[in-house]
Amino acid sequence: MDVERLTYMANQIARNVEPRGHDEAVAETASHIIKFWDPRMKKAMLQGDRSGLVPIAAEAMLKVDAYVAAHAATA
Question: Residue 30: CB partners within 8 Å, gap ≥ 6?
């Protein structure tokens, strides 16, 4: 999957939940990606260039990365 498109999607999620406050927005963005993104999407984003992510999405991807590492067989 195209990393530019995934970056756009992650940023949309982050911007949508941003009004909830930084910490909750990071948690909500990570939760959404973990629950709803296909493993191939997560892998592409984690292995791709993340420089285009807004700060909330960038922090959320760190949480996603930790989740995927801990649940490699099912993530």
Answer: 60, 61, 63, 64, 67
- Alpha helices (H) in the chain, listed in sequence order: 3-17, 22-36, 39-47, 55-70
The total number of structural domains in the chain stands at: 1
CA–CA distances in Å: residue 61 to residues 42, 48, 75: 9, 11, 13
Return the structure tokens found at 37. 């993104």
> Each residue of 35-54: pLDDT tens digit?
999 999 999 999 999 999 99
Q: At 37, is the secondary structure helix, strand, or coil?
A: coil
In-domain check, residue 75: no
The residue segments making up the domain with residue 49 are: 3-70
